[in-house]
Amino acid sequence: MDKFKDRQKAFEAEQSQKEQTEFEKRNSRNKVFAQFILDDIGQSDNSELLREIILSDLEEPGDEDIIRKALEVISQNNGSLTREDIEKKLSEI
């Protein structure tokens, strides 16, 4: 029985590590993406807006939440990027 528990703990630890790695990769992608949006609207140094865009990805699974936030920011600041530009950039990163 101890072997089973040991294997289960090892599996759980491996899964936890995979989830952490995936979260870190996605967070890095979101930082690059948010900076891309800020560059478009001419606010490259706006750390508060950068943070808002990054954190918007935690609202729901998938990319729709961060796309929605990016479009909102672009619209409010007269940016030139389209939804297609945004989706393309996300897929490239």
Salient structural properties:
single chain; 93 residues; mainly alpha; 4 helices; 77% helix; 0% strand; elongated
Topology:
Layout: H1 2-40, H2 47-56, H3 64-76, H4 83-92
Helix pairs in contact: 1-2, 1-3, 2-3
Word description of this protein:
This protein has 93 residues and is mostly helical. It has one domain (2-92). 77% of the residues lie in helices and 0% in strands. The protein contains four helices and no strands. The protein has helices at 2-40, 47-56, 64-76, 83-92. Helix 1 packs across helix 2, helix 1 (2-40) runs parallel beside helix 3 and helix 2 (47-56) runs antiparallel to helix 3. It is elongated, with a radius of gyration of 18 Å. The model has no long low-confidence stretch (mean pLDDT 91).
Radius of gyration: 18 Å
Assembly category: single chain
Overall pLDDT metric = 91
Task: Give unreliable regions as ranges.
Answer: none
- Counted by DSSP, the helix tally is 4
What string gives the helices and strands in order? HHHH
Number of strands: 0
What proportion strand? Answer: under 5%
Helix content: over 70%
Q: Label the overall shape.
A: elongated
